[in-house]
Structures are given as structure tokens and as C-alpha cells.
Write a structure and sequence with these properties.
By secondary structure, the chain is largely without helices or strands. The protein has 1 helix and 4 strands. The model has no long low-confidence stretch (mean pLDDT 78).
């Protein structure tokens, strides 16, 4: 798996900014989750009071494929 997100977060941290992400804690691949924000209101999209997230299958910065759970791909 690439380290694009780590590099970008480090650069943004110097400016007091960050990309909001989290990593799954129980099993599964260590892939960042990105929260969904409504384009019309800018508010966090929720369902039943819980935020909705998008889990990319490829790095949004370099396009490298993230290893999928149960996949035979090497990271």
C-alpha cells in the first residue's frame, strides 16, 4: 500500500489542516475511510445518526490499488 495519505497529512499538518479519515479497527485492510459531506449544505451525511463513509479501492492521489481483504495481491 502506498504512503500518499501519510505524506499529504504531514504536509497539511504544518499548515494546521488535515484530511478527516479513520482506519478500521477490527480486521480488514488498513484503508482510509473518507466521510461524506452533502454538496448542498456542507454538512456531514448521516443515516440513523451515524456518519456515512466512502472506502476507496484505489489511492485517490496516485491510483495505486489497495489490497482487498482476502485478496492474493501483494501490498
Amino acid at each position: 500500500m502506498c504512503d500518499c495519505l501519510t505524506k499529504i497529512q504531514d504536509n497539511l499538518k504544518a499548515k494546521g489542516l488535515e484530511i478527516p479519515t479513520s482506519l478500521p479497527l477490527r480486521g480488514g485492510p488498513a484503508i482510509p475511510f473518507f466521510p461524506l459531506y452533502r454538496a448542498d449544505t456542507g454538512k456531514l451525511e448521516t443515516r440513523r445518526g451515524r456518519p456515512k463513509y466512502v472506502m476507496p479501492t484505489h489511492c485517490p492521489f496516485c491510483g495505486a490499488e489497495y489490497a482487498q481483504e482476502g485478496s492474493s495481491h501483494d501490498a
